[in-house]
Write a structure and sequence with these properties.
Structural class: alpha+beta
Helix content: 10-25%
CATH topology: Alpha-Beta Plaits
Strand content: 25-35%
Number of strands: 4
Order of helices and strands: EHEEHE
CATH architecture: 2-Layer Sandwich
């Protein structure tokens, strides 16, 4: 049996955001083309889980939440979304950086393989 494989490489974007910014971040990445699976049959697909993040802003930081030098704990969401094509993954990351309230959002992009 033949398997049809998309020519576009697949990537998974994973990011963390404070809960109050979750919908804005998701809207931005979806507008950039992320979360269309498979190849547009479904849109705005993602996986989200809530958890607790922590950080201590250093002297040179300009924190959105918390104070310099003080350990901060905050409720955050982890979001995972698929991107078909490197161009979509790059656009989604750029959109995330624009929508995210932190100085530098925590994210990772992983290339996926078909087996």
């Amino acid at each position: 049996m033949a398997t049809i494989v998309s020519a576009a490489a697949k990537f998974r974007l994973v990011f963390f955001t404070p809960v109050h910014a979750l919908e804005a971040c998701k809207s931005a990445i979806f507008a950039a083309g992320a979360g269309r699976y498979p190849l547009g049959k479904y849109t705005e697909c993602c996986w989200t889980i809530l958890g607790s993040g922590q950080f201590r802003p250093g002297d040179a930081a300009n924190p959105h939440i918390g104070s310099v030098g003080k350990l901060e704990h905050t409720e955050e969401a982890r979001v995972e979304v698929i991107c078909f094509g490197e161009d979509i993954a790059r656009k989604a990351v750029a959109a995330l950086k624009t929508a995210h309230p932190y100085e530098e959002p925590s994210y990772g992009v992983y290339k996926l393989e078909d087996f």
